[in-house]
Amino acid sequence: MVTVRLATPLRKFSDGKPEIKVSGSTVREVIENIDREKPGFKERVLENDEIKQFINIFHNNEDVRFKQGLDTPVAEDDVISILPAVSGG
Amino acid sequence: MTVTGLRCRNCGKHYPIEAVSICEECFGPLEVEYDYEEIKERLSKAEIARRAPTLWRYRELLPVERDESIVDLKAGFTPLHRADNLAEALGLKELYIKNDSVNPTFSFKDRVVSVAVSKAIEFGFDTVGCASTGNLANSVAAHAAKARLNCYIFIPANLNLGKIIQTLAYEPNLIAVEGNYDDVNRLCTEIAGYYNWGFVNINLRPFYSEGSKTLGYEVAEQLGWQAPERAVIPVASGSLLTKIYKGLKELEVLGLIDSADTRITAAQSEGCSPVTTAFRTGEPIKPVKPNTIEKSLAIGNPADGHYALKVIRETRGTAGAASDPEIIEGIKLLARTEGIFTETAGGVVIATLKNLVEAGEIDRDERVVAYITGNGLKTQDVLADYLTKPPVIEAELDAFRQLVEKKQEVVAW
Description:
The complex is a heterodimer.
Chain A: E1 2-6, E2 19-22, H1 27-37, H2 41-45, E3 46-47, E4 50-51, E5 55-59, E6 62-63, E7 79-84
Parallel strand pairs in A: 1-7
Antiparallel strand pairs in A: 1-2, 3-4, 5-6, 5-7
Chain B: E1 3-8, E2 14-15, E3 30-34, H1 36-42, H2 45-50, E4 80-82, H3 84-90, E5 94-99, H4 109-123, E6 127-131, H5 135-147, E7 150-156, H6 161-169, E8 173-177, H7 181-192, E9 198-199, H8 205-208, H9 214-222, E10 230-234, H10 239-253, E11 263-269, H11 274-281, H12 305-314, E12 318-322, H13 324-338, H14 344-358, E13 367-372, H15 380-383, H16 397-412
Parallel strand pairs in B: 5-13, 6-7, 6-9, 7-8, 10-11, 10-13, 11-12
Antiparallel strand pairs in B: 1-2, 1-3, 4-5
């Protein structure tokens, strides 16, 4: 299972929990699996099969835009963080 | 009360005033909204002129409700210098330097932090924090000390020594994180989701960023209530650039200036120029991995990059970049022509201005304001290798005469 850390506005999809355990072998699969449990999640995070403009997704602390995007492979014990992009500076 | 609420800049959804920064629908950034009719009645040029020379002279345009919440180290109302020597060197007719390096902690960040920490007190936070490239760390630590708040500050471990030492002097909890600023910022955004603290540039960001508007107000006031024709602004997250423009537009709405027709121009370092690259290529902003001596602007994934680009295009401005050697030369040029010693971010501004004038993208007849946002004492380590070491002589008159006469001979020859 992969640990998924969620930004506060997304915790309505995790019953308020800051992190959840999800299965999946790519970032996309993980998002789809959360959506299956909590419909509407995918729509919040993705648009036209791309990560929304104001969202950053990190896989093991690395922005997936520097990896293979939604196709980035994930393994057991990996951590995915879904965070707002407008932060810092 | 002149603030009416928060509004998502992306989808327009309204929110009450709370310590939130992100729209729960679309994750867009929230922006403070004001009742400008009310402000118009209360604020006039004469009223502003009567007030103390700090950023709080524009009190009605800042999102803090109660005067007693204000944490004021007397930031703002920094000098605007007419820079004729530098103008001559660059071939410009009329150039001004907004010297924001003389704020209480020696950078423009005191403006945003004074607002954010005041707001943190109104929200009842007992702990404030930030992710920082250095200047913000200095300022948050100083304001937290003054306000007697707990303070957690996160910086990249490879930061300039001067900035680390200054921060430590205020005795916050300073945590150096392995990685670049974008790593630190990602970590802090996660931490902010776990602890109920006031992170000035995360959950307090809508309030924090409003402080930068005062750099627009002040320049207009100092130019005799006129907007400059061109403003050259350093870009890291893009927040400063967008807020200087917002400040000028607000003055126009309030009738305090005729028109905010300033061409907004971005300055970045070549080793980290996602906004300039997007402007030049016409493509959306692509995050980059910074590789430059300029650390205070080294944000590879700029939070407000999208909005900064929009402002640059709307105002028919432009965006440029400077290489590391040009940044060093920019610092030295400003120091030797105008007597102002700036950090690397200021070197970026001067060098980019020079490049854009030489390329014909900035007209030589324009009235230009260059924003210098940080002090040279903070990044001395970068400059040290590029300066001529002083000659060492014996404490003898003859030794000095020999030195000077040798120099004169060289000149004569």
